[in-house]
Amino acid sequence: MKVAVIPARGGSKRIPGKNIKDFCGKPMIAWSIESAKSSKCFDRIIVSTDDTEIAEVARKYGAEVPFMRPESLSDDFTGTLAVIIHAIEMLENDCGEISEVCCLYATAPLITAEDINRGLETLKASGCEYAIGVSSFSYPIQRALLIDEQQKVKMVDPSAFSARSQDLKEAFHDAGQFYWGTRNAWMSGVPSFLADTAPVILPRYRVQDIDTTEDWYRAELLFRAMSSYGS
C-alpha cells in the first residue's frame, strides 16, 4: 500500500493558521491534497494534525484524518520524521503493512501530480531508500557571504573569488515539497539527508519555502504566473 502523509499541525507562529489560510482561492493545504489525488498513485491520503479545524478542511478536500496527532508530537521542536513514523504505526495497526510513504508538505502549492509520480518512479528505479525533491541554487554557493559581528562582509570560501562561475560545482537544496521513502527507511529513523537518497530535480520557478509573509507573497506571485502560462 502506498500512502501520502501530509503533516499539518496547528499553532503556526510566523504565519498564523497558514495550513488553512486562503492561498489563491483555496486553503493552502487543499493544493497539496488535490495534487496527491491527481497523481493517482496513493491508496490513502492522510493528514496528520492536532487541530480540528485543519482536520475539517482536509476532509472537505478529500483527505482522510483517521487519527488526531498527540500533543507530544505537536510542539515546535518535533521533527517530521517522528510524525511520519507515528502515522505509519497508526495506519498499520488498522490496515496492514505499507510499502512506500510520501511525506507531502501542506505548504507546497506549487507541486504537481507529475512531480509526485516522478518521485515514486525515481524511488523505484534508483533502488534508494528515499527520493526527494531538490532544486539548484540560483547563485554559486561557494561565493556566499556572511556578515560578522562587526557587521562586515566575509566570503564563506575566499578561494572561490577568482574562479569562473561555470567552473564552480552546482549545488542543490531541499525543495521542501515531498519526500518519498520506503516504509522500512522511514521506520529506521534515519533522515533522508543522511540516507541513501535519490534526487528529483525541480525547476527553481516552482520551488518556494513558505515560512514568512515575504515567502507567502512570493509563492502567490509564482503560482499566479504559472497559472497564467499554464506551466
From TrEMBL:
Entry-linked CDD domains: CMP-NeuAc_Synthase
Keywords: Nucleotidyltransferase, Transferase
Matching InterPro entries: CMP-NeuNAc_synthase (IPR050793), Cytidylyl_trans (IPR003329), Nucleotide-diphossugar_trans (IPR029044), PseF (IPR020039)
Ranges that cross the membrane: none
GO molecular function, one term: N-acylneuraminate cytidylyltransferase activity
Top-level taxon: Bacteria
Protein name per its UniProtKB record: Pseudaminic acid cytidylyltransferase
